[in-house]
Amino acid sequence: TNMLSWQRTAYHFQPQKNWMNDPDGPMFYKGWYHLFYQYNPDAAVWGNITWGHSVSKDLINWLDLPFAMVPDHWYDINGVWTGSATLLPDGSIVMIYTGSTNESVQVQNVAFPANLSDPLLIDWFKYSGNPVLVPPPGIGAKDFRDPTTALQVSDKWRIVIGSRFNTTGIALVYETTDFLSYKLLDGLLHEVPTTGMWECVDFYPVSTTAANGLDTSVNGPGVKHVLKASLDDTKKDYYALGTYDSETNTWTPDDPELDVGIGIRYDYGKYYASKTFYDQNKKRRILWSWIGETDSETADIKKRWSGVQGIPRVVTFDKKTKTNVLQWPVQEVESLRHSSVEFDKVKVEAGSIIPLDVGTATQLDIIADLEIDSKALEGTIEADVIYNCSTSNGAAGRGALGPFGLLVLADESRSEQTAIYFYVAKGIDGHLTTFFCTDKSRSSKANDVGKEVYGSIVPVLDGERLTMRILVDHSITEAFAQKGRTCITSRVYPTQAIDGAARLFLFNNATQASVTVTSLKIWHMKSASIHPYPL
Ligand code: DQQ
Questions:
Q1: Is residue 218 part of a domain?
Q2: Which among 267, 304, 356, 468 counts the fewest CB atoms within 10 Å?
Q3: 86 pLDDT exceeds 50?
Q4: What is the pLDDT of residues 307-332, one digit of tens each?
Q5: pTM (global) more than 0.90
Q6: Contact status, residue 358 vs residue 522, Cβ threshold 8 Å
Q7: Are 274 and 300 members of one domain?
Q8: Is the CB of 200 under 6 A from ligand 1?
Q9: Is residue 2, in this structure, part of any structural domain at all?
Q10: Does residue 251 sit in the same domain as residue 147?
Q11: Residue whose CA is closest, atom 7 of ligand 1?
């Protein structure tokens, strides 16, 4: 332990110590969920990138295994970088990953489990013919990385790799039959000017009709394809919905104005290098993501660790809006709920704050439904049409119809608080626009930590009530509005609102509208167990 130990999370995945970034090669195999991750065995900063490996029966409690791969060949000596797993119909597994070579050239390599009858997949061997791909003509030696899970089109397999031409982000597609030799397909899967280098591209189908997830190779009627890129320039994960034509090998966005990198994000807080996999065990598509730190590097070195993984989220197509996916914490996280406190119908007057007596508030799962007073809503002619979470003065900026929501990781006197809230704007035409935000500006008395106000618009359809869910875990909050249409993950570093001193409040900083919290349920969360596998 050390002086900053209270910042460690209790039910998010994180290694015992040192640096972690991207999730790699997630999969379900013979009863176990496997998570590999970018890891520095030697320090709490990025470097010496190795593949950490942990397994779980439920995506929540983990057993740490020996490293799956270390940088030990000329083709990955500068790092075993990000990659993806493909489960083949014959039961075998192929892992394709990026190596940074002895000359820092980005190449793609292949590795296989040494023993497919070992459900833990402890030993891996690298293919003797590595690398299987080097940057093609016209592509920079340092702009060629992060292969996707392969998808099958008739008798061939395709992988997608992110890159760029100058400032245009691009996705290249390679075809293979044996995973050892590959052919670059003509043209591009997609490109978007000004978006820069595309890292960790993800490409997968979602069903527009069924609730279940789809295996990666599925296409046809009732299927849309999500294309996701992690923008190296801004460190943000953007996705878009569209259609994949496997004949021409092109993906077309449903709405060109919401194209990859210029439209929607998975998460408007700290959320990067995410990757999905199809869980054939429970027929769902699961999204993992690296949640980095927003404190200083000096603080990371002092606390001796950096980075956690988000709670895995189930991703589905939003059949109501048809313009976004829904993201929701895997149901297994609910196994950590132990005691709960329920409040019914709490009225929060305009300009007021209500403490919620829940005891210790560092590990919580909160679900709140909220309703704005309809008279105030109707009586307001126009309000805040140019609202913006990040620039409209956060939770302190008062309007007729917002902000209102919860203060988490707050101390008794609210010298520290993280506000998670809705804000409603109303146009002169009567049109309502709802925002979902997280304000970190007062989250910590420390001055070397990020204090952004995050957020974006959240679609709210006619007749829907406002609803949010918040997971609180010491130094992280994950917030989901309208069942996961808009999500915000934040790292927060309170100095006072820690352990037994952490409190929870409802607040309504609107000037006109009272808000009724029609239903509010708060669960205390147990800690997950994460420890070495007894080998
Ligand atoms: N992290 C890996 C790269 C990837 C980046 C290196 C994204 O493969 O592009 O650790 O965070």
A1: yes
A2: 304
A3: yes
A4: 999 999 999 999 999 999 999 999 99
A5: yes
A6: yes
A7: yes
A8: yes
A9: no
A10: yes
A11: 273
